[in-house]
Amino acid sequence: MKKVKTPFDYMSSSPDRYALLKAYARENRQKMTLAETILWNELRALPKTFKFRRQHIIGDFIVDFVCLDLHLVIEVDGDYHQKLQQTHDDILRTECLNRLGFNVIRFTNEQVIENLQEVIREINNILYNE
């Protein structure tokens, strides 16, 4: 994936929400799911060319993982993402992140836990081939 050289002006949230989002992101980092922990360990092991952040604020969202240089967001979805309202919210969230210039890819907890090598293969295809 080609690096995008732009200022990271999208990283700031609404001032009235930032403190809340920051606290929530910190809590999320301390209480990651098993699938998030497994994937985080894999992302940290990638070459330093690809610096990922976890539970990072972009606009008014907290994304699971992001490589800012590549504008790549990776989300790991638990069971509640299967609910109709959450599925709708995820679509809107992805559209907003796309408008900010981010490519968003999603995996389920089950994919990460049960088929990690396929998940890593898909991420590597994006990192090295686009």
From TrEMBL:
Pfam families: DUF559. Residues 21-126 form the DUF559 domain. It comes from the Bacteria. Signal peptide: none annotated. This is DUF559 domain-containing protein. It comes from Segatella salivae DSM 15606. The lineage of its organism: Bacteria, Pseudomonadati, Bacteroidota, Bacteroidia, Bacteroidales.
